[in-house]
Amino acid sequence: MKDTNVLENLHKLKDFDLNLLRVFETVYISGSGVRAAEILGVTASAISQSLQKLRIFFNDPLFIREGKGVSPTSFADKIHESISENIGLLFEQLLISEPAAFNQVTIYCTPFTALRVMPSLALALKDAGLHCGIKHISSDGMVDSTEDVLTYRKADLVFDSAPYYSFSTITEVFDSAQAVAVCRKGHPRIGDILLREDMKNEMSTFLLNETDAVKNIQVLIENFFVKRHFAYSSSSLITILGMTESSDYISFVPDWFAEKFAECFNLKILTCDFVLPIVETYMTYHKNLVKNPELSRVVKTMQGYMRGPDKNI
């Protein structure tokens, strides 16, 4: 009965080119017809023609031009939800014969996260006796989503402040950090403790970041102090530390980051009369990674470093 249903469905789709679904997914994930053409190695005109066929078949515009890219319609969202997981699982089945050996590990994350991830990866490879290269792709310079990176096999491991869940991937908490306050050691008004009342007379720095995890922390800090006065904003924590060192600004940064660079920037870590929630970093990878015993062992060793007694690598 199951095979009969499959044959009936195939007959209904006899005039439908299944390659069009590959075009649809590439446009959906990349958010651009031009970028989809680059990924698939075809012309932009070919992508437009494929989309036109899909629009006629589904009787829906599917994608609406928005700025330099395109946005999916609600109907396109439903199509994506229906086929994305199946495509991921299909890729996994087709790639089951991957060789066990590897000569390079590719990591996808922000430069900031790389400061935390790369040392543990290097140590894990050394302990495993594996001699291979490490490639870091900076997510700050790309518009790819985690879904795009993993679906098209652009990286082995993806690290992000937000989890990503699908049937073909595994997402685990890799690390956690707590925000701490820092100021320069010669600050004229702040000793070793930062009180709520102190912030009424102090200027702050602000990290420009669009991730929900960072925004949540910023909102909690703002709610605690009611209203802070910002003197400097930047998307770079390194430049924020540099400005904090040469001013009387108060900055909030992750604990491990402060511990690593406080002495370099002549800063002191302050004790606060409030506690901020923990921000977690998630590691995501394809399920087929566990089929590679060497790479799987490296991942587990990395996690051991982050959770062990010598956590601050």
Characterization of this structure:
The chain has helices spanning 2-12, 19-30, 33-40, 44-58, 74-94, 111-127, 146-151, 212-225, 237-245, 255-261, 293-307, and strands at 63-66, 69-72, 104-109, 133-138, 157-160, 169-184, 193-194, 203-207, 229-234, 251-254, 267-272, 278-286. It has 3 domains: 2-94, Orthogonal Bundle (Arc Repressor Mutant, subunit A), CATH 1.10.10.10; 104-160 and 287-307, no CATH class; 176-278, 3-Layer(aba) Sandwich (D-Maltodextrin-Binding Protein, domain 2). 27% of the residues are buried. Mean pLDDT is 82; it is low at 96-100. The N and C termini lie far apart (58 Å). Strands 3, 4, 5, 6, 7, 10, 11 and 12 form an 8-stranded mixed sheet that branches. Helices cover 43% and strands 23% of the residues. Helix 2 (19-30) crosses helix 4. The protein is of the alpha/beta class. The protein contains 11 helices and 12 strands.
* Name of the top-level CATH class of the largest domain: Alpha Beta
- Biggest sheet architecture: 8 strands, mixed
Structural class: alpha/beta
What is the annotated CATH architecture of the largest domain? 3-Layer(aba) Sandwich
Which stretches of 5+ consecutive residues score pLDDT under 50?
Answer: 96-100
SSE run: HHHHEEHEHEHEEEEHEHEHEEH
Total DSSP E strands? 12
Enumerate how many helices there are, as a single number: 11
Supply the CATH superfamily name of the largest domain.
Periplasmic binding protein-like II
Q: What is the gyration radius calculated from CA atoms?
A: 24 Å
Helix content: 40-55%
- Which band does the percent of strand residues land in? 15-25%
Distance between the termini: 58 Å
Under CATH, the topology of the largest domain can be stated as: D-Maltodextrin-Binding Protein, domain 2
The total domain count is 3
Query: Mean pLDDT, rounded to whole units?
Result: 82
Shape: globular
